[in-house]
Amino acid sequence: MFKKILNIIFLFTLLVSGCGKENSPVSNRTETLVYSREGVIENFGGDCSAVQIRTSSLGSLNLTGIQKVKFLLNGYSDADLSSITVYYLNSNGEQINVLNLPHRDQINNTRYIETDTPEYSGEFFLRLTLKSSVCTGQIFRIELRDLKIFTIN
User: What is the reported pTM?
Assistant: First the structure.
């Protein structure tokens, strides 16, 4: 019995020593804050009779030559078809989404999103859409607060 316990301890020690730092990959990620806006950015409400859309500029951002883009945000909506989108317009005037939260569940449960770089430098836009499939006469709401955008290399 004592010999079995010693063998178990020996195997455990061998396994743990094989999981040291020298065998784990090293993360050389550098995060740089390129946009920050604290507090309420957008907050509005409406009923189901019309879709409410608010679009604003985030200004010019340079997201070229980087690996990833990271968004930190705090969103809320009680309307099931609401959405939050960060996008830019390419040279043909097409909307290219960099961040798209197309449903209330994604808006309410999102704090951190990491995406591939769009390789774009220029003006970015923020669009919030308030839309509900249920028409009970209630006033629905959407809100976005505390948006930060980081580049990752």
Answer: 0.78
